[in-house]
Amino acid sequence: MNNHSLSRGARIAVLCAACLGLLFDGIELGLMPVASLSVSKSLLGDAYTPAAGGDWFARFTAALMFGAALGGIFLGNLGDRIGRTRAMGISILFYSVFAALGAWVQTQEQMLALRFLVGLGVGGMWPNGMALVAECWSSASRPLVSGVMSAGLNLGILLLSQLATLWPITPDSWRWLFYLAGIPAVLGIVVLVALPESPTWLANRRIAKRPPPPVSELFRPELLKITLAAILIASIPLIGAWSASKWMVPWADKVASGSNAGYKATTLAWWSLGATIGSFTGAQLASLLGRRTSYFLISLGSTLLTVAMFQWTAPLQPSFHPVVFTQGFVATLFFGWLAVFLPELFPTRVRATGSGLAFNSGRFATAIGVLMAGSLFAYLGGDYARVGTICSLIYSLGMLVIWLAPARSDDLSSG
Length: 415
Known about the structure:
By secondary structure, the protein is mainly α. The protein has 17 helices and no strands.
């Protein structure tokens, strides 16, 4: 059995469902950057301070990242055991139901717990959605499939920004956003009951296979350098995105909320528009320029543009949104690179295990990095520009780390 066992209509349904799942996934990722300060002002009341608002933003983000790391591991593994479709449906239900419950929270701690649970679904959606589409559309090129799926994720953030522009999120009006975030539960149910399963998975589960290699194999002397390099290569874009780039949205909220309540949503819109284009083209550009050169240039560009965003312009200045757009475009090129080249760093026998370990280690590192950024934010007295600038330097490490990776895939035994 292969992908041709599915009709064209069934394969289109799979692609649409996976893209919608990632679009709603993007809404969950963009939700707290645009709503965090309003939520904190509402729930903390008189105890709210700008420093506390930034600290809680970091905590909410870290909780989501911890959840995504665990979700990527456990719900990703669930897709191997019970099927891509069912695991994807469960992931969608996780992030939508627990997001909707956020509309009823009364304390910051309750919201923190829910953001962790939302993260489980966010982390599980990506591996199951990507695997399902790849196995049902095997004739599509990997860069093209990666571009379409990644663009769907950032398109969700763009959609959220437009909704927040039409209906501004304020301390008195934010719960509607969480009701809205629960709507994808309908998609989760449809996926569970109606979406066809991957024919490849159905065929492979009937075939006896040798057990997958243990994770410990990745840390044997011949692979140790590659494994550590892969973890660093995957971690840098994730840490940079969440501990540096995303501070621009609460910064815009702080500066402009008094005069323009929708400005933070407009800022997120410009970033997500650049990110949508960047995530679609990143895989193609990375394939064209090559492994080391592309990662080096993306690291350099992300460093310069993130510093520029926090030091050479500021919210409400005419140059702010053009810089935000460009930073979003360049910094998301990383994720097209990861889709193409991260698995290729490892020999075939440990390719899935190695790339999964690297990406989810990056998520754990991101959660820790965001918490550290939150502590730095409090130490600097709530200075968004300074904390964003300091944290942006994480991107510059990519210019060094990439030279630890092999120049070509055939530098490793195919296993």
